[in-house]
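notes to self, project folder thing:

trying the whole complex as one job this time. last attempt i did each chain seperately and stitching them together was a nightmare. two parts in total, labels are on each line so i dont mix them up again. if this works i'll redo the older ones the same way
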Amino acid sequence: MPRHLPGEGAITAATASTASTRAGALAWAACALALLLPSAFAAAAGDAARGLYLAKAGGCLACHTEDKKGATPFAGGRALKTPFGTFYGPNLTPHAAAGIGRWSDADFVRAMRHGVRPDGANYYPAFPYPSFTGITDRDLADLWAYLKTLPPDPRPSQPHDLRFPYRWRYPIVAWKWLYFTPGPFASDPRRAPMVDRGAYLVEALGHCGECHTPRNYLGATKKDRALAGGKGPTGKDLPNLTPTHLAKWSDPELKDFLLFGTKPDMDSADEAMAEVVRNTTSQLTPEDLAALMAYLRALPARPDEPATSDKKK
Amino acid sequence: MRSKLLTAGLFLAIGTGYACSAIAQVKPETLVEQRVSAMRLQGKYFGPLGGMAQGRIPYDANIAARNAGYLEVLSKMPWDGFEPSTKDLKTRALPEVYSEPAKFKAAQDTFNVEVGKLVAATKSGNEASVKAAIMDVNKACGNCHDTFRAKAQ
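result (full assembly):
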């Protein structure tokens, strides 16, 4: 199938904004520039079958499907309880009123890469666009093509239920300026291609760090502590994915866990992760699963976060 | 007849009293050891069921029925080990076990109900429904662990 490769514009914008984060105030200009660009390349025709696979690898289903038997996939409704309040995953089906049926290609790209709604308001980073910004143009086009094939569902998206100061969306502008660097994932030619692919799956699509990387008091992930174990939405400590502990698991053990959710001691994964195993890691191609593992193995061993929720250890 | 009943009732009452006071006197460390053992044994007998449901190991109706039967009993054992006296010991039980007792009880009940359904499914002999029931039990395990059990160290 012929495919338009993404325009150069996005890459330039990404490079510009990465550099400008260091330069401080220039980030504003770069962000503004970046926001104008997606329409330039969003028209690429996507491959829906590939998009389905990417939606699995991206774990979209869990947050965008109600937590009950028989719920319509992607029609929204999952509650994500956080210290800032409860977020509800919105309806992702192409229903014109309830879902995203009226979105243009550019709207989708702008949401995923820049965390901006079609009406120009910012998304809360509960929608993990700090990770999704790394998704490549081609993958975005395929994901979008897949979402458009879903049956439209009229289930209305539920408004978030947030604590007082967080109801305002304006401060997200400042948050993004501080913590958000838009731009697709940059391959690192210094590492093995498999590790590089794994990095893309873990950091961008799979957004593993959204739960497994510690966050600061403003809810931003600490980049220098990536995947060293974070806090779940409820504040529960979650495992460190760097080799600090994981080195004790053999490759077959780690693979078994990612395919079936079974740990070496016959214990099973907690349901939050068991769901990720069912929806995502067990659905990966053997190559992608191997890449994911290779990347985790290649991480520098980082010490655990000081425990809080399990006070006794 | 009536006096015999009364005597029996009296002995029963005394017996129950002894049993209760005996439980109350068990050291917290022992209670923890026992409830952890009950959990581990559930892991032992649930593991192969999980493997069958996911197609990792061949389905065997006899083993499924046997393990489900074991689990039905085992799944009731850990709960009376979560005595307040064990609260401050080093375990993976999160403080929510004691701060949200009603929710904890509800999670136990859900789990026990799912195990009951699994046992019923193994008696029906329908492989697909046994496998579905196994996955439901697995979810009930994990749902409780999400809230009440700390991450592994």
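what i see at first glance: DSSP finds 14 helices and three strands in chain A.
need to look closer tmrw
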